[in-house]
From TrEMBL:
<feature type="domain" description="Alanine racemase N-terminal">
    <location>
        <begin position="27"/>
        <end position="222"/>
    </location>
</feature>
<dbReference type="InterPro" id="IPR029066">
    <property type="entry name" value="PLP-binding_barrel"/>
</dbReference>
<dbReference type="InterPro" id="IPR001608">
    <property type="entry name" value="Ala_racemase_N"/>
</dbReference>
<dbReference type="InterPro" id="IPR011078">
    <property type="entry name" value="PyrdxlP_homeostasis"/>
</dbReference>
<comment type="function">
    <text>Pyridoxal 5'-phosphate (PLP)-binding protein, which is involved in PLP homeostasis.</text>
</comment>
<dbReference type="GO" id="GO:0030170">
    <property type="term" value="F:pyridoxal phosphate binding"/>
</dbReference>
<dbReference type="Pfam" id="PF01168">
    <property type="entry name" value="Ala_racemase_N"/>
</dbReference>
<keyword id="KW-0663">Pyridoxal phosphate</keyword>
<comment type="similarity">
    <text>Belongs to the pyridoxal phosphate-binding protein YggS/PROSC family.</text>
</comment>
<protein>
    <recommendedName>
        <fullName>Pyridoxal phosphate homeostasis protein</fullName>
    </recommendedName>
</protein>
<feature type="modified residue" description="N6-(pyridoxal phosphate)lysine">
    <location>
        <position position="35"/>
    </location>
</feature>
Length: 223
């Protein structure tokens, strides 16, 4: 199926999920995750109107940026090795995977300006996942105040691979609760207004629980 047709389906579902939860669909941005697909397919997404694109590797990011001549906002959604920070950080608009102080330190050193970061939280507690444990997020964000290049835009999580709706919903709810708690603190470096959660299989639930950025790969551009 063409990207435009898939996009229409996703936008309809997004709207319905927003309505079910009393939200405006304008408050939800779709990050089109192009990491699996060709440059041509990514271009289709841009032509279908998507302005936020997501990549999880430096090589993919550079290739797509060159091909598309930067006609998008770029989201880095994968785990970022400290040694790659210098190559990545000035090419992106959002980093979705800040999860350790050593990474923050490297960003502070290498970035030309302020970086919008999402703190990746391992809500489900699965051992193989990246991210900060929920009970440590507040302390981590407090420690980030000394790095003036880092702006905590919000929180991000990857839900477990499951069809269990209750489990998914619970995961998203927990992230939303932590986000509200941090937002309420009013720390100048951490407005923390955004929630990056929801992928192809679970974005409708994520929207019902407050997602402001959903990251869609498979359902939008194909594998
Ligand atoms: C690949 C990826 C996505 C998109 O996954 P789909 O299931 O294909 O929609 C979203 N977020 C992250 C962090 C990813 O690595």
């Amino acid at each position: 199926m063409e990207v435009a047709a898939k996009a229409l389906d996703i936008q309809t579902r997004l709207k319905q999920a927003a309505e079910r939860s009393g939200r405006s669909s304008e408050d939800i941005q779709i990050v089109a995750v192009t990491k699996y697909v060709s440059n041509e397919r990514a271009k289709e997404a841009v032509e279908a109107g998507f302005t936020h694109l997501g990549e999880n590797r430096l090589e993919g990011l550079m290739e797509k940026q060159e091909y598309l001549q930067n006609k998008a906002s770029w989201h880095f959604i994968g785990s970022l090795q400290s040694r790659k920070v210098k190559d990545v950080i000035n090419k992106i608009d959002y980093l979705h995977s800040l999860d350790r102080l050593s990474l923050a330190k490297e960003i502070q050193k290498r970035s030309d300006g302020t970086v919008n970061c999402f703190i990746q939280v391992n809500v489900s507690g699965e051992g193989q996942k990246h991210g900060i444990a929920p009970e440590k997020v507040m302390e981590f964000i407090e420690q980030l105040s000394k790095y003036d290049k880092i702006r905590v835009a919000g929180l991000m999580t990857m839900a477990p691979h499951t069809k269990d709706e209750e489990l998914l919903r619970n995961c998203f709810k927990q992230l939303a609760n932590i986000q509200k708690e941090i937002h309420t603190c009013g720390m100048p470096h951490a407005p923390c207004t955004e929630l990056s959660m929801g992928m192809s299989n679970d974005y409708e639930i994520a929207i019902e629980e407050g997602a402001t950025f959903i990251r869609i790969g498979t359902a939008l551009v194909g594998e």
